[in-house]
Design brief:
heterodimer; B: about 650 residues; alpha+beta; Aldehyde Ferredoxin Oxidoreductase Protein, subunit A, domain 3
Amino acid sequence: METKDKVLMINPEKCTGCRLCELVCAVKHDGASNPSRSRIRVIKWEMDGVYIPMACQQCQDAPCMGVCPAGAISRNDELNVIEVDHDKCIGCRSCVAICPFGAMGFNSIDRKVFKCDLCDGDPQCVRFCEVQAVEYVDADDVAILKKQDAAAKLHATSNKVALKSA
Amino acid sequence: MALDRKIAYIDLTTGDVTIKPIPLDVRKKFLGGRGLDAYLLLNHSKKGCNPLGSANPLIVSGGILTATCASATARTHIMAKSPLTGLLGSANMGGFFAPEMAWAGFHHLVIKGKAKKPSYLFIKNGTIEIRDAENIWGMTTTDTQWAIQEELNDQEIKSLVIGPAGENLVTFANVMTGIKNAGGRTGMGAVMGSKNLKAIACRGTMDIKIAHPVDALEYNKRFIDQITSAKVNKTQGTLGTPMIWGATNSWGGVRTRNFQYNQCEYADDIEPEAIDEICEETIGPYHMAGCFGCQVHCRAQYRIPSGPLKGNYDEGPEYTSQGAFGAEPDTPRAETVLAGNHLVDQYGIDNLEIGSLISWAMELYEEGIITNKDTDGLDLSFGNDEALLEMVERICYRKGKVADALAQGGIQASKIFGKNSFDYLIQVKGMSNLHSDERATPALALNVATASRGSDHLRSRPAIDLYHLPEKVLHKIYGNPVEYKGKLSSEHTEYVGKAWQVFWQENCYMGVDCLGICKYHTTFLGATLPNFEDWPKVLYYNTGLEFTPEELWDISERCNMLERLFNIREGLTRDDLEKGDMLNHRYFDEPCRRGAPDVVGMKIDKKRFIKMIDEFYEHKGLDKKGNPKPETLKRLEIANEPSHML
């Protein structure tokens, strides 16, 4: 499958804080608009104009998987995604408590935990984010893409300095 | 589901809260948002009620599509009788408040009475609590929001608040949310202040079930692609509304020195690119923010680069701040525009109104109608940046004779200043005009003269009239969903067919205001954006309700007529310079002195203008005096208003 080993790459700098990702995530998964159902959430520092989208990292050594007493959480290597088996889940919320990113949610309407499933390879948050603050890329490529971004900044700065001293 | 959102009636005097469903037949007639607000205002206010009295109902709402899977449904609408105009008070703002209110279970609030002491409302998942606000009274708009979040220990709370201007009953105080989202125009903040209501805080985690989620999602994607493919929206997402400034000023459509000129000279410092550079230097390459679910992201982020307020964070400045703190007072300097923009956001005051009124006072100062003595020694000359910013503070805190007079609004102030001060006041129905100059654009002049909430560009402006679109294209846009057989002209200086364009836009803007969608997502700045033809689908996928484009047009027309009925009840007469559909004499008497060759020398031809109003009335189904004909009310099914269905 071509989606193998792809991950969400989030660049908070680009985020405009519109929270469309939260809306489409909830609608896609639950057919309802409700940010508290969204797998991705935008955390804001309003007075600094800083918005950081937070989502599941699909960890290699996932704490949620390790802590689950029912063995309900497993890794699907084909999609590079951590999955919850709701038939096994006992709803103890240990996974919610332990996740360092707050990526595991608990929905008090359905009384179930929920997490990002990468929309089976077509993440809607990515599809709808026109500014590309959330992208879906090969895990191998994250570092080089970040290097390119950082290099572009260095380049812009040196250009500025060169212009000033010219 | 969107349709199960409730309406709450809150009496601040008694503390009583009544919650009711919104019946489907009411929805089908008025949809929601501004349209249903107009119905509620007409039904819950008495003729001649004091706008700052406890009987004036303050209505707060989201649209029928708010927080559904439709694009940019961020708008909050606020309505009451206006303390500025004595007529319809109506404000509309973006941000995140209305969606949060919808997730908390409500689409409309009708707030009556007056709290004994400063209070705020806390609305959470179907419950409404009136809380003490004594600790936050006096705070700026942003401090108020963070203080509420802290008090309730919840960062996700979204609040609609007033600042010091609203508390001090300045007649054009805003309600605000977030950093800069402003429910401006007509003084809804003062109405809140008069009720001792400092804020409405919301937090919601209730589902809004989407009727057809798969279709809604896919249609939303198409809708967004349509929006983001329009070049005007792309530019707006880079420069914000200042993008309009450059073009408008260069052709001569920005009033300067109150109304002496129609173009601001030496304005390089506040050109959109110059403002953008400041944003980039103080924030970084990505400095645009968006309202809920919006892909236009037109809010530029900045820190004030220099001066006494250096380092303060804000968003905007909008096109209106460039006029209010740049062109009109003739202070076209970025530092002044950015500082002015920051002060109005913090105090919670209408930037457009305050800039206009200070500039008017500057002209009166120049003419000797007000003097140094009246201003307590402040030199109110055009071009005085410091005096301009000082006046903003004085007005919000009502310090000194001139500022206190201005705080009561232009018409009241003209009575205090006396002499011929009124002749210099650029207003319609008691509300200042936008800083745009409509002398070369009869269509836009008709729009400001007849807008329901007083002089205003967001109620019926055919902005695309400036694009000189081919007549064929104009007919395609303006001939749907109802046929128009008359002539339309591509020339912005023409009078032909403009009345129909204004009438069409009036209905189009009422449509989006009922849906709760932002105007940048319809035929406003972009000629190719969605309107009546597209809305039935988005309504059906999200709510399950079925409408035809024609039915949505009828609803818009109906709701506009409700606003007209309210205004007539409160004293609107056609030619009244204070309460009518009439422009200041300067539009007819003083020609444009600057700008493009086809603008210089232009003024509004009064005879043709009056004929245009006649035509406009005819389209609306009004008689020559501007009152609705009985058959019009019958056709629109509002012959028996108020009908008290809600």
